[in-house]
Specification:
homodimer, alpha/beta, 434 Repressor (Amino-terminal Domain), Rossmann fold, 3 domains, six-stranded mixed β-sheet, 46% helix, disordered N terminus, DNA-binding
DNA sequence: CTGAAAGCGCTTACAG
DNA sequence: CTGAAAGCGCTTACAG
């Protein structure tokens, strides 16, 4: 057997890649996909050696590795993720866990994660959930265990739940949390720095000359809301403007809450000349309230949103808003999860760099009248 | 061995479910998940019998089945999808394949599919693609084969590609096509009847008194565009109104194309008093163009959209639009895929009923002036 | 650096 | 109706 292997090896090594023995080549083309056994037989090595090549083990002679790799390439062999997973006791699936944010956010995050996963042999499994439900962590737990997930990506608001993170860690499940501040160790975090963006909005509106400002935040239980609104308030304070308590309204990140918030804020005397809504949906609500009251944007009221969703450029006038590179965030999150994974096949996606939100200026702001 | 099994069986059968032998129970709790072997041992049957219970084979005595089922329930046993998949030569994954429609559409479709998949042991893997790219079918082909997908759900525009459907059929991969008309046999189709919706819009606007109408369609290569626009034209014709050729504009389902289309249409004499845009994004573009020209909605111009995206209710005035039960469509599509699958675990989702779009009337239309 | 044996947790023939 | 054997396509110890 060993002799035969050696003999075959020589044949294969001296022959150009296109001249594989016809019989063997046929055996693999007709039955559908080829297996590790086909590769081993054709390369004249044991399947264990092929396995080592697949998994980038250093314990393979360079020329053996090259030969096997060329052969795999040639016959289009790719290891079966299920078989590999069964032996590894884990799958090659990555879960994307989220709780009801905006559709555009989710879809872009998916695109980004898939950018990083392309040609790695990993796939993305989506798992929406309801973080307000009593037993949602149990649902995630069984999802992770049943599928033996390689890891999960956590999006706000679930990413902010420490109980969930603890549960995952206890189960030995890798995870990355996408959140506005560092809630976890760096290897498990991707920060979006929402506070900086809030400060930038404050600076922008102050520099336009606005002194009477309004703020519509998201729900208090969202860390992002606290950071965005807090950054705004701090930014104003640094420039000598104290935002009165009745100039901040707690919204719910929904269109309707934006309408309600604007109606409340615009009744105040003096009337605010600019409003920062902590997401675009609420900013659209501000548009509705203002237009209904006969106020023009930006003539009578400047508005700034957050997210740069498609909505922002589809409103009229187009909304100035904080742009978040969500797709890139998704890519980086998946990258962090895969970092140091030897079983990776194919090229890696570009390296990670700090994520920074920035203001995208459109047509919804101008200096206040008079 | 056989005797021992019989003896054990009696013990287990006579003991209440809560009194499993401590030793055995412990063996399964400590090591993490229990396997088919644990269940077999504890139930005093062979693993093959347990397998039969799992797969709902009729070749099991009712009382044996019940006993095994109770035990599985009690110890929280669930078969490993990877091992099962390896033996079955297919996975328990369902692919959602789509090409760039609106985010809300995709996300709702995912929710719907997951509604049907909940507690079935199947998971949803997302796979966006680019149907304009030369080799996108090859990409899908390798995705399907690599993951040995159980089946795929095809969303417009990829669902309309006959080459893709042929490729999947040839590979023996189940699929469901979501499309406006019957492109395939019923077991592989879910119709959305876009033509009916187009007719409904025509009837509605005609009944309000509009006689000068404008139409902004999607791209010609989208079947949905042809159906929506065609239905509109036919509906008008049935009521005695011929839509002049220069009153129909081919858009691209994008905001910008809506702006461009409206600008073109509104230059015409007599000016249209109502415009039907074949999706909400383009309708938002019509808003922008009209407002910029100083026309009020609905005072000077009535507008109808299609999709009932969040955008529709966030515009001001709120947009009247065709509502599509997308989540339900997703659920039904997954249901069709799973139909007749014996390996299903857990309760099925509600049965399928015809999907019908309907007009959701809001504030963007009124009778024409004068 | 390389390989033969055993095993991951299930299932499909094949017997009874 | 039930079970023992072999196998799905990989990997992990264990030898050499």
């Amino acid at each position: 057997m060993k002799k035969q292997n050696t003999a075959r090896r020589k044949t294969a090594a001296s022959a150009p890649p296109s001249q594989v023995e016809p019989g063997t080549a046929k055996a693999m083309t007709e039955g559908g996909k080829s297996t590790i056994n086909d590769v081993a037989r054709m390369a004249g090595v044991s399947k264990k050696t092929v396995s080592r090549v697949i998994n980038d083990s250093p314990l393979v002679r360079p020329d053996t590795r090259e030969r096997v790799q060329a052969l795999m390439q040639q016959i289009g062999y790719a290891p079966d993720p299920q078989a590999r997973g069964l032996a590894f006791r884990r799958s090659f699936l990555i879960g994307l866990i989220y709780d009801n944010p905006t559709a555009q956010y989710i879809v872009n995050m998916q695109y980004g994660a898939l950018d990083a996963l392309r040609n790695t042999g990993f796939e993305l499994v989506v798992h929406p959930c309801d973080s307000k439900s009593e037993d949602y962590i149990q649902g995630i737990r069984s999802f992770v265990q049943r599928q033996k997930l390689f890891g999960v990506i956590l999006i706000p608001r679930v990413s902010e739940d420490q109980d969930l993170a603890d549960a995952l860690r206890e189960m030995g499940c890798r995870y990355v949390r996408i959140a506005s501040i560092a809630l976890d160790e760096p290897a498990r975090m991707l920060q979006t720095h929402d506070r900086l963006a809030g400060i930038e909005v404050a600076n922008y509106l102050e520099s336009l000359g606005h002194r009477n400002l309004g703020l519509i935040t998201g729900p208090r239980r969202y860390r992002s809301s606290i950071e965005r609104g807090g950054g705004f308030i701090d930014g104003l304070a640094k420039r000598g403007i104290q935002l009165p308590a009745d100039c901040a309204y707690e919204g719910g990140y929904t269109f309707e809450s934006g309408v309600a918030g604007a109606e409340k804020l615009l009744q105040r005397t003096p009337r605010p000349t600019a409003i920062f809504a902590c997401n675009d949906e609420m900013a659209a609500g501000v548009y509705k309230a203002a237009l209904r009251m006969g106020l023009s944007i930006p003539g009578d009221l400047s508005v700034v949103g957050y997210d740069d969703s498609p909505l922002a450029s589809q409103l009229w006038p187009a909304l100035s808003t904080i742009h978040l590179p969500i797709r890139d965030i998704g890519r980086q999150a998946a990258n962090i999860l895969l970092a140091g994974e030897p079983a990776l096949r194919g090229p890696r996606s570009p390296p990670n760099m700090a994520v920074t939100p920035h203001l995208s200026v459109r047509d919804s702001c101008q200096p206040p009248k008079g």
